[in-house]
Amino acid sequence: MGVPSSNQVFDIIIAGGGIAGLALAACLKQALGAGAKILIADPRLGASEGRERASAIAPGSRRLLSHVGVWERVEPRAQPIVEMAIMDGRAHDAVRPTELRFAERGEPLAHMAMNDDIVAALHERAVSLGVECARASVAGFSLLRYTIEASVGPASPRARLLVAADGARSKLRAFADIATIGWDYGQSAIVATIAHERDHHGRAEQHFLPAGPFASLPLPGRRSSIVWNEARADADALLSLGEEDFKRQLEARFTLKLGAIDVASKPLALPLAYRIARRFVAPRLALIGDAAHLVHPLAGQGLNLALRDVASLAEHIVERMRLGLDPGGADNLSSYERARRFDVGASGLGMDVMNRLFSNDLPPLRHLRDFGLRLVDRAPALKRLLIEEAAGERGAAPRLLTGQAL
Q: What structural domains and CATH numbers belong to the chain?
């Protein structure tokens, strides 16, 4: 896992060894085989996050991970979500009726899996397929006539395409002078793992509170992952409380429906913002994942949007390279951008509108939104459409999301 030499030429260099970057490397190498030279670079490549963070894996994303050969390793430690209940109200309401319910139909609504498990499985798979790895950051690049020269640690290898999968504070996006549009929510998401006495039976809950949504997502065993949205100052104040005081505040929201609870991991507060890059591509550069878009975690779609980017970009690259064409050509990158722009914009804005609609306690608005939720609950066709949208199955979905090979 050394730094490449400056005279090496790759087809694709991927900056960022998180889930999106590793998944793209594995998908490309599996489809193209020994004929494709792929390098992935990250100073923490293969390392654990060192904290318990879980993600909801939608059916389309699960199919991608299954096709690339990593889901069989992740699944034994994942928890299927078989039911989702949505509620509206206040933290101290004595009764919390379910306004909208989704149940599995032939397959789970999603799976909860630990990020470290997914990264470890993808890294192992990428290495076994022959992806070259470098524990170094990609600090910048220079455009040449037919390639792009990347600064990978002390070396300057070249590639036909450079992919920025280096996160929300992408160095490569900034280096390419690609601006973002969006706003700060003034909210933070408190994330933690909770242990409880009774089984959750694979049920997830989303409780819309005036300060923001509170989600309880099932994990293997008698544990759940929480995503607790509060105004930023309130979130900081909550994390400054002693253990017992924090637990009392948590009990008011989680309730004791599953018996006594304990906080099983150190709570963390993650600031929330909405950011979308004005362009997803530049000459011989493509953005994926958080480098391209950062959305509200309301429906747990951040990682799934990133894996939709992976599926789309992989499809565009593989089709071109099998024809002997340039994967970093301007027409190919423009096609990728068109394929992703609407989906990302619609999903991000949809979650933004939902958060604004429910993060308040105005009585007329509350009655109207509860009526809307109950109306959807009584419309099977609309519920099915929402499930398919969350699964990434609607529209011209990339082949990997529907279980097809590239």
A: 9-72+114-181+275-360+397-402 (3.50.50.60), 79-111+184-272 (3.30.9.10)
